Structure formats: C-alpha cells, structure tokens
Amino acid sequence: SESQYDYEVYHSLEEIQSWMFEMNRTHPYLVDMFSVGKSYEGRPLYVLQLGKRSRPQKKAVWIDCGVHAREWIGPAFCQWFVKEAINSYLYDSAMRRLLNQLNFYIMPVFNVDGYHFSWTTDRFWRKTRSKNHKFHCRGVDANRNWKVKWCEEGASSHPCDDTYCGPYPESEPEVKAVAKFLRKHKKRVKAYISIHAYAQMLLYPYSYKYATIPNFNCVESAAHNAVTALYSAYGVKYRYGPASTTLYVSSGSSIDWAYRNGIRYAFAFELRDTGHFGFLLPESLISPTCTETMRAVKAIATGLLKKC
Amino acid sequence: SLYSNRYTGDQVFRITPGNDEEVHALRKMLTRMKVDFWQPNSVSLICQNATVDVHVKRNDTRGLRAHLKQENIHYGVLISNLQKEIEKQTGSHSSRKRR
Predict the structure, then answer these.
(1) For residue range A84-130, what is the model confidence (pLDDT) as tens digits?
(2) Could B42 and A163 be called an inter-chain contact, meaning their C-beta atoms sit closer than 8 Å?
(3) Which of A84, A270, A283, A292 is flagged as catalytic?
(4) Do residues A182 and A189 make contact, with C-beta atoms less than 8 angstroms apart?
C-alpha cells in the first residue's frame, strides 16, 4: 500500500505504475490519472494530475522524468514530488497555495520501454526501443526527436548513435503523445520541466543555438532562485544557464520545443551527481537529491504565481 | 546476479584531453573502440579540458589504458568494476526480494 511504498529505493516500471494507480485511488481530491497514449511497444503513458479540483482553466506545470532510460534518479524524483506534494498539502501553506492555484502534470516515466529494458537487459540503455527498418540498431534519443531544428547540430542521423534524432520529428510515439498533449493545453501550461541526470545543472533554452531568449531576465532569475533554494538544503551547487553554453549544443530537444510552443518557462534539470557514481547514484542519495530538487521546483512554481 | 553479470570487469574512465591534439587523438581512439558515452553524449562533443566519462567493456580497458598512456592523455578510473557498483546501487532490491 502507499504508506509502505519505499521512496528511497529505485522501482521497476510495474511497481511505479501500480503506485500511480494507488495514489489515484487513495487521493481522489488531489490526484487524477490518465494516459496520453501508448509507447512503441504498446505500454500506456501514464500521467498524474496533481492539484485541488477547481476552475477548469487553472494554470499548469508539466514535469516529465525518465526521458533517458538509464537516468533512474529522474523517476525517483517524480515519485518523490507526488508524495511530498500530497503529504504536505495540509500542513505546508506554500504547497497548499501551489496545489490550489496550479495543476501539476507529472509523468514519472516518459520512456517506458527504455526504462523497462534498463531494468531487465541493459542497465545503461538511453534511447527508446523503436525498430529501424534499415539498421539492426534500435531506439531514438527522445530528447533529439522534437520538432524544433530537428536533427541539426548536436544530434546524429545514424540509428546506432546514442543521440540519433529518429527517421522524422515526433517519430517516437512517446514524443508525439506528449507533444500532442502540450499543444492541446498550451494556453494553460506555464512551465515545462524535464528531469535528467547527471551533471548538477539547471538548463533553459536555447539548446540549439548560442542566443538569448526574449524573456531571458525572467527565466534567468527563476533559475537563480531555483538553484539558490536547492543549495539551501545541503549546500550542493548546481550550475545554471542556457543549455547551449552551459552543457553543449543539441537540436530537437524538449525544452526548445516547449519554449517555441509558447511555454515561456522551460527547464531541464541534470540531477546529481557530477560523475562519482554517474548513472549509478546509490539509493542512499535518493532522499537528499530529491529533497533539494523539490525546493528548486517549488521555487520555480511559486515564481509562476508572481508577475515578472 | 543482476544483468547476468554482464558488467563484470567493465570500467568507467574519466578522461580529460588537455589540448586540441589530445582531443583529436581521443576522438580517434573512442571512435574506433566501441564505448558507451556517459558524458558527453557523443564523440563529436569531446572538447578541450572538458571531462569525458566513458563505460569501457572489460576486454577493452587494457587497450584504452595503453593508448591513453601512449598519447600522454590524463585519465582516471571512476568505477573499477561496474557490476559491483550496480549491485551496490540496488543491493537493497535483492535483499528486499529475498525478504
């Protein structure tokens, strides 16, 4: 049951999906669950909607985790966020205000096929699991497949590469499903957050070019406030800035697509660590990593309720 | 055993090319050898003074070490036995399953 669910271990896809059903069943006033589509291998793409049921036109925040299969701390954070939001709704006025004024769409595992494969076969799998009809290699980098500057600098057109952009934009059912949902709700979704690992960074557009976004000052100060809030937990430093200069140039990324789609606050978190454990962040570090990231995401969401 | 022990002896190297010449030599090395890029995501993104973390299969670790020494490129081993690290990461699962 939910009270026995251990948020400080990594869970398989099946366990996470059962947990989603249980959260939906036990919190009817704050949680709604739906699927935005099916993955390449036919698995449902579940999303939890968090927030007090009120007027239909509430502003919303989208958070996805598990775009890259091997980055297990991502799904762990999405679960942690849901647990914390629900548990603190009654005693934390800041969180109560957020859930009363915003809806949060939480997608704990974006790349369900790849995540399942990383549990059962290849721990370091990154891509989706779609088949290529010309090559034996499988999968597309779900963060190079969005319809924005698709397959230009920082993506590969070779199906065996880890940054393969796919045969065409939104070729991956997972990407197409989320893009369709966000296009449909673009008027309400005010922030897009994608959780990745590792590097300890908070990134915002542009990824595909060295240029400054029009609302740079607002986004920059939101990022600064977020990493400051994160640092206040355990003194862990996160670098922040435009993805192209802070990390490297990449095309077809979700944050560039979200930004171009009208979502003015688009962020990608690269969670702990900086390489000591890499993708094998021990379970003992799930709690501090998620606690500090929770503070950063709350800071971003709180900023949406103010005018910039 | 997790993943049928397929990562026994695999290692993660952290390599830091100090100049363009070393960048060029490293790109050549890692293109020829099938490694799993942890960061950056691909060989084309390797650049001067930026760390490169690569997962190397056990049969290739000796060869890579020799090449890096030959080219005098600075490196360290982040994870000396990947299989052990995987089991440490999710060790509680196997014990939990046993429970």
Answers:
(1) 999 999 999 999 999 999 999 999 999 999 999 999 999 999 999 99
(2) yes
(3) A270
(4) yes
